[in-house]
Specification:
Elements (H helix, E strand, L loop, with lengths): L11 E2 L5 E2 L14 H13 L4 H8 L3 H14 L9 H13 L1
Antiparallel strand pairs: 1-2
Length: about 100
């Protein structure tokens, strides 16, 4: 009998259109999080390559931190992940919510 099994894709499409696999994701010991790496991890979770819990455990992230990355991409795309622009995008989003 076949039991319910989670079907996980072998690869997903990354933020720049390239295929992502578990082997091509950023290394687990990544400490410098540039926009592309953050976006790759979010794309992997959104595509089902990793679960949120697996991503957080693998990269030492909190669920809140990862959720912040997802929100930033949803609101502003990859540029929203730039640490130096967080306040600018936050203010823009808050103005959009008023209208």
């Amino acid at each position: 009998m076949i039991e319910n099994q989670k079907i996980r894709p072998d690869k997903v499409i990354g933020p720049l259109g390239e295929p992502l696999t578990l082997d091509t994701l950023p290394p687990a010991n990544t400490t410098r999080w540039v926009v592309r790496r953050k976006a790759e991890v979010v794309a992997a979770v959104n595509g089902g390559l990793l679960s949120v819990d697996e991503a957080c455990a693998r990269y030492g992230l909190t669920v809140e931190e990862f959720a912040g990355w997802q929100r930033a991409i949803d609101r502003s795309g990859m540029p929203g992940l730039r640490v130096t622009r967080i306040q600018q995008y936050r203010e823009l989003y808050e103005r959009q919510q008023k209208y």
